Amino acid sequence: MDKVTEKTGMAYWKKIVILLCAGWITIWIYRSALAPVYPQIRSSLGGGVSDTALGSISSFYFLGYVIMQIPAGFLVDKIGKKRVLIPGFLLFAVAALVVALSHSIQMIYVGSLLAGLGCGSFYGSAYSLTAQNIPADKKSFSTAIVNSGSAVGSGLGMILSSFLVAQQGMPWQTMMYIAVVMIICMVIAFQAIIRSHKDDVAALAAQPTAAEIKADTPKVKEKVSIGTLFAPKMLFSYILYFATCYAYYMIVTWLPNFLATERGFHGAAIGFSSSLVAFASIPGALFFSKLADKYMAHKIKFIVILELLSAAMLLLTVQATSATFLLTALILYGFLGKLAVEPIIISWLGENAPQVGVGTTLGVFNFFGMMSSIIAPALTGNISDATGSKVLGFYIAILLLVVGTILFLFANLKKKRA
Questions:
Q1: Which of 249, 276, 334, 413 is least enclosed, having the fewest CB within 10 Å?
Q2: Would you call 48 exposed, middle or buried from its count of C-beta atoms within 10 A (0-12, 13-18, 19+)?
């Protein structure tokens, strides 16, 4: 028992779960706050800003976020989580302030790019902390709690932005100032709660590996290398995550437009129907991650079944002939999809990655996944322009999910046979 636990009665890993959930809430409040107030942003810049220019605000954010994944993961392993997280979130705070004070779309782009770079410090740090500190039998469920912060933050960001700006008439910059305050609070919390790199390494070194516990063998220090990073089972987990995120970000970006232009939804029904995916994902993530922790030897089976079921739900969404059928398929996709399977994949990854290279492995893993956030929206938009429909975009997402799942399963079956 560490000194912090003795003083407060709360285990270190539980504090980590709460802290990281709050981190995702903060990030996603920022991410989701701008889209609902695009008309106000256009007006404040004097008009004449196209929809493409406004949409590029998000593109610049994700560009910075993707660029930062591998460097941040490498730095996490070298200098520690706290030394990566705190400077990253300070940059995030400065970036949100730059966006708030911008008088041109170009300056908003600069702020968005910096915000993406700052937020890029979070993923590798967060899931290195969960992989190295949470007990194995609670890892998937705890990761699901951490991940639920993204759904909570997304909902809060859209609701607060719509209420304060659209309904109450406050300046759109209000949401950025709220984000700055929350980010500073997170920096203080990171400093107060997360162990130093020296203490973290000492605690990790003291933990026996599963092999040691089972066979009572001497500890072998694993090192991260290109060979371990891109071993077949790791490479196919990256591909699977790319496919999972591709489907998710295609849905997040284009589902409202798809419902309005191709399925006859109107007004508030569009927003309500689109939000079903996010709301359904929270109970799905908690339920399946709890099962995965209970049946730890079957995580691969959980991953494969959930991925194939989510592909089936997307297929039902496209082929639905009634609104009720379509909404049911969307709810089930949320319940079975990315946010449900992601904690189990991350838990599996933490068990299979070299312990001294978890941050680097997670950085590469999330780099592959977040590449889809750049590709999926643009490719689906191009398909829509060329064909007049987004249906082909759904089919591409379904195909990627099926192929990625089969490759992941094959790599792990091959490992078992060996």
A1: 413
A2: exposed
The amino acid at 55: G
- Look at residues 361, 345, 262, 246 and name the one whose alpha carbon lies nearest to residue 301: 345
Amino acid making up residue 221: K
Per the CATH hierarchy, to which homologous superfamily does domain 6-207 belong?
MFS general substrate transporter like domains (1.20.1250.20)
For the chain, the first-to-last Cα distance in angstroms comes to 39
Question: How many other C-beta atoms lie within 10 A of the C-beta of residue 231?
Answer: 15
CA distance 229 to 363: 10
Q: Which residues contact 398 (CB under 8 A, 6 or more apart)?
A: 247, 311, 314, 315
Q: How far apart are CA 124 and CA 283, in angstroms?
A: 25
**Inter-residue contact 306 to 340 (CB < 8 Å):** yes
Span 5-18, pLDDT tens digits? 445 568 999 999 99
In CATH, 217-417 is 2.40.50.100: no
Q: By C-alpha distance, which of 140, 88, 94, 142 is closest to 289? A: 140
Could you give the angle at the alpha carbon of 405 between the alpha carbons of 403 and 406, nearest 5°? 65
Q: Token pair 């539980």 is at which residue?
A: 14
Task: State the amino acid at position 215 in one-letter form.
Answer: A
Q: Please calculate the CA angle 23-64-278 and round it to the nearest 5 degrees.
A: 45
- At 164, the pLDDT band (50, 70, 90 cuts) reads confident
Q: Where are the domains of the chain?
A: 6-207, 217-417
At 335-346, the pLDDT tens digits run: 998 888 988 998
**Six-digit token string for 55:** 């949409």
Please indicate whether the domains covering 6-207 and 217-417 agree at the CATH topology level.
yes
